[in-house]
């Protein structure tokens, strides 16, 4: 197995934290770099050079950033980062979006996620994997009372992981997928829904 160099966007989020922990303990990766948000990402293009794999767990909320701020981070910033990474030689890009992503949706959240999926797909990565998890189950430090209630209720009932999934499960699925060898040399686009992510996280477990 070749040793890979990777970067992570959105490492301060709950899934990003789990991903970093899993990457640094995995011998398949020789270099793991956390790239934080910058106001003018174009001025930092050199930061994205020389990576084999890029993971993007970046995201904010409408409540925290407002409509324009949400779109700027979840669509525009992610897309620009992916463009620069591709120009820097990155071959794989793993993008975390959300269950229900749809560029034609009337609702802001799924529409924005669908738009960024389409934009990144047009960049031509050798391997693009889009992850669409349902409700993320985690012990979030940020206070979100309603989300905690939903996590407890849905997480307890969703035994088959149809609509919810732990953040560490998502992280392991992302790593497992990045280590799978493509069967051909053509650009590959893979879209993984909640159950697919759950199943993929178990592939390398013994």
From TrEMBL:
InterPro entries: NAD(P)-bd_dom_sf. It comes from the Eukaryota. GO terms for cellular component: cytoplasm. GO terms for biological process: import into nucleus. CDD domains: CC3_like_SDR_a. This is NAD(P)-binding domain-containing protein. It comes from Daphnia galeata.
């Amino acid at each position: 197995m070749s040793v890979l160099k990777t970067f992570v966007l959105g490492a301060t989020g709950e899934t990003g934290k789990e991903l970093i922990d899993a990457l640094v303990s995995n011998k398949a990766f020789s270099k793991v770099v956390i790239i934080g948000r910058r106001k003018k990402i174009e001025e930092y293009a050199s930061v994205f050079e020389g990576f084999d794999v890029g993971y993007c767990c970046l995201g904010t909320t409408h409540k925290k950033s407002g409509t324009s701020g949400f779109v700027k981070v979840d669509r525009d910033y992610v897309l620009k980062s992916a463009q620069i990474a591709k120009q820097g030689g990155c071959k794989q890009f793993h993008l975390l979006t959300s269950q229900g992503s749809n560029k034609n949706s009337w609702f802001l959240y799924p529409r924005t996620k669908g738009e960024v999926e389409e934009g990144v797909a047009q960049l031509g990565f050798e391997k693009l994997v889009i992850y669409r998890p349902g409700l993320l189950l985690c012990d979030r430090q940020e206070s979100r009372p309603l989300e905690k209630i939903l996590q407890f209720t849905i997480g307890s009932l969703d035994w088959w992981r149809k609509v919810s999934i732990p953040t560490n499960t998502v992280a392991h699925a992302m790593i497992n997928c990045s280590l799978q060898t493509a069967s051909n040399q053509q650009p590959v686009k893979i879209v993984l829904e909640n159950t697919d992510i759950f199943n993929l996280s178990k592939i390398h477990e013994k």
